[in-house]
């Protein structure tokens, strides 16, 4: 069959054609759906359970982030709606930093919208999606295969709960599944398991680690393997003061398996409820879950039952062996599924190999530098902040040591806010596909990226990129990242991290954009001080970088800007460009008068006596004069007084990066 005949056959047999198809209603899936829908065009999201939001609606009931300042985009919209649902308003409650950087802490306070009930999350996501008439959603429908045109994915086959089969064709497909099924079926290369220890991955491979003292224990080999982290049903437990419904004794129950458990639950959430998140010994499974990533639908259903048995066994242990008869399954959650989550919490399955592969060095700032600054990514499409959190891959059997089991480590003291590059969700060898969930990252780096706040914004980025690709008919691989970034910033997604730049700041988009371009960055402590006044030294650096002036240093002209000053080259460049007269510093050569041999024939230089006053504030008139020097038309005047850094950013953002200003 010819290619044209094949495509005609598929188009005739299909049940839908859309611009953007998203497979998987995970946190990244709903992020992708909303991000794409905001750009118009037809969007279809297909989910295999009856709820949207992935684990956020399936038992993860608190924010996995170490700052509210790092949250943005669709996820922060979700948080604000959670906050409103529970009646919270006004300023966020005070908090105390618990991280060694002096800022970060576990940012999941209920008053900040940081905790929720599963059914509340599901309802909020459904309401968020319903705002877009061009976004259609199918529930309880599984993907069964893909339609390819050479190396380009052009559609996906589905089957719903009634056994009805369908095919959807799309200009661009987003694989938002946790397992990366669509990418794998389409032929994208992928990894399962852990890489070996390397210079960029000192915590990779076979590892024993004691979190309390941050020590790598003896017996750690760093060898590569196919192991994946523990997984479990994140059951929602409710407190019943008059006595909870007791669960029946699960098949094969043995109280000895919980002898070394913590004998408790986890985070308390609204409604007198708790997350069941007990690791390494509790409701989760290690090693027996290794077949999940590449398993068939039947195998995954078998493993679901295994996880279900484990979770109910732990609850039975709490109720019958520890006497906690006040705790039971929440009777108002997952009411059509025996009060159990629809989805197993699979932390990590397949990870595609993309145009960029993230490593531990992208998350742990001390591997590439010696400060809290992670490597800067001008191609950033998301910001996350969570420690590298790797869970055990094998059951703990040696109780003579304090570690939580082989593969477990929590690098809270060496992780900070990080960026995720666009290329990490562009898989190799397949066109027309974006993968924001099972993205391109090593096991160690994935252990920080895999948090839902980050995944949601990554999905939003994938949705935006997919919609732009469909609209412009440019492959996601060839799409200009700057166009994706511009739309993400309009949708209030953070791409560069600053502690003091809120999403609603009038200059948010301008500051983020200029930071990505490298023309206006913040300070080493990851602040920007947007409302602080602009100094002369800062103005010099901005003008040189924004207008792309060639560096030119002919000497040392100012006593207060020595060679060691951070802005020395920028100040001297403006001097050589004859720009500083706009700051009241005219050239000195006219004072020398006409040429006189006895005076001018030699090389004698008078001592430098002038000052630049680098910390002096720039007035609005001086700033306008500096900008207008490099423009063909003048900007309107500003009110008298100093110019803020935010005002400077807004001005520069409104201007094109000019060419031809160098001699």
TrEMBL record:
UniProt entry keywords in alphabetical sequence: 4Fe-4S, Iron, Iron-sulfur, Metal-binding, Oxidoreductase, Signal
A GO MF label: oxidoreductase activity
Signal peptide location: 1-16
Pfam families for the chain: FAD_oxidored, SLH
Residue intervals passing through the bilayer: none
Start and end residues of each SLH domain: 494-557
Gene3D superfamilies: FAD/NAD(P)-binding domain
Protein name: FAD-dependent oxidoreductase
Organism, as annotated: Paludibaculum fermentans
Phylogenetic classification of the source organism: Bacteria, Pseudomonadati, Acidobacteriota, Terriglobia, Bryobacterales
């Amino acid at each position: 069959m010819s290619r044209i005949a094949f495509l005609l056959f598929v188009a005739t047999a299909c049940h839908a054609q859309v611009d953007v198809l998203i497979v998987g209603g995970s946190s990244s899936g709903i992020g992708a759906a909303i991000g794409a829908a905001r750009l118009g065009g037809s969007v279809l999201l297909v989910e295999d359970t009856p709820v949207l939001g992935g684990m956020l609606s399936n038992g993860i009931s608190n924010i996995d982030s170490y700052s509210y300042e790092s949250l943005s985009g669709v996820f922060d919209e979700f948080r604000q709606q959670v906050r409103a649902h529970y009646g919270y308003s006004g300023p966020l409650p005070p908090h105390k930093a618990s991280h060694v950087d002096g800022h970060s802490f576990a940012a999941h306070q209920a008053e900040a919208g940081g905790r929720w009930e599963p059914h509340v999350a599901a309802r909020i996501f459904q309401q968020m999606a319903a705002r877009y008439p061009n976004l259609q959603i199918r529930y309880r429908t599984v993907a069964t295969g893909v339609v390819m045109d050479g190396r380009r994915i052009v559609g996906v086959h589905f089957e719903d709960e009634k056994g009805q089969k369908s095919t959807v064709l799309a200009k661009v497909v987003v694989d938002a599944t946790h397992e990366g099924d669509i990418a794998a079926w389409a032929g994208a290369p992928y990894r399962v398991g852990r890489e070996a220890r390397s210079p960029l991955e000192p915590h990779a491979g076979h590892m024993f680690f004691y979190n309390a003292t941050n020590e790598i224990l003896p017996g750690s080999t760093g060898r590569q393997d196919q192991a994946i982290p523990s997984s479990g049903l994140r059951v929602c437990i409710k407190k019943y003061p008059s006595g909870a419904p007791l669960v029946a004794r699960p098949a094969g129950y043995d109280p000895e398996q919980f002898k070394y458990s913590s004998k408790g639950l986890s985070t308390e959430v609204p409604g007198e409820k708790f997350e069941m998140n007990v690791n390494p010994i509790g409701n989760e499974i290690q090693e027996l879950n290794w077949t999940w990533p590449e398993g068939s639908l039947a195998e995954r259903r078998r493993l679901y039952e295994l996880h279900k048995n484990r979770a109910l066994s732990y609850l039975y242990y709490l109720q019958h062996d520890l006497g906690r008869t006040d705790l039971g399954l929440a009777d108002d959650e997952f009411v059509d599924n025996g009060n159990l989550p629809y989805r197993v919490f699979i932390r990590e399955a397949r990870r595609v190999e993309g145009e960029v592969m993230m490593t531990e060095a992208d998350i742990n700032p001390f591997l590439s530098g010696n400060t809290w600054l992670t490597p800067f990514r001008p191609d950033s499409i998301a910001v996350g902040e969570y420690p590298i959190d790797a869970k055990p891959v094998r059951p703990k059997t040696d109780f003579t040591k304090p570690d939580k089991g082989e593969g477990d480590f929590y690098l809270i003291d060496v992780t900070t806010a990080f960026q995720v590059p666009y290329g990490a969700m562009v898989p190799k060898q397949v066109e027309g596909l974006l993968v924001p969930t099972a993205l391109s990252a090593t096991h160690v780096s994935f252990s920080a990226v895999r948090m839902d706040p980050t995944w949601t914004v990554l999905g939003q980025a994938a949705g935006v990129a997919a919609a732009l690709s469909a609209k412009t008919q440019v492959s996601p691989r060839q799409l200009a990242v700057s166009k994706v970034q511009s739309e993400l910033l309009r949708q209030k997604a953070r791409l560069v991290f600053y502690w003091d730049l809120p999403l609603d700041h009038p200059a948010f988009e301008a500051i983020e954009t200029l930071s990505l371009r490298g023309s206006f960055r913040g300070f080493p402590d990851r602040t920007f001080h947007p409302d602080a006044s602009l100094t002369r030294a800062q103005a010099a650096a901005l003008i040189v970088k924004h207008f792309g002036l060639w560096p030119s240093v002919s000497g040392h002209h100012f006593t207060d800007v020595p060679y060691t000053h951070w802005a020395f080259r920028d100040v001297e460049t403006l001097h050589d460009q004859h720009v500083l007269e706009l700051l009241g510093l005219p050239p000195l050569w006219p004072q020398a008068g006409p040429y006189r041999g006895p005076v001018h024939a030699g090389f004698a230089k008078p001592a430098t006596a002038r000052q630049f006053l680098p910390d002096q504030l720039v007035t609005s008139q001086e700033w306008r004069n500096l900008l207008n020097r490099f423009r063909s038309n003048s900007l309107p005047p500003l009110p008298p007084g100093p110019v803020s850094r935010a005002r400077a950013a807004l001005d520069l953002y409104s201007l094109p990066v000019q060419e031809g200003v160098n001699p």
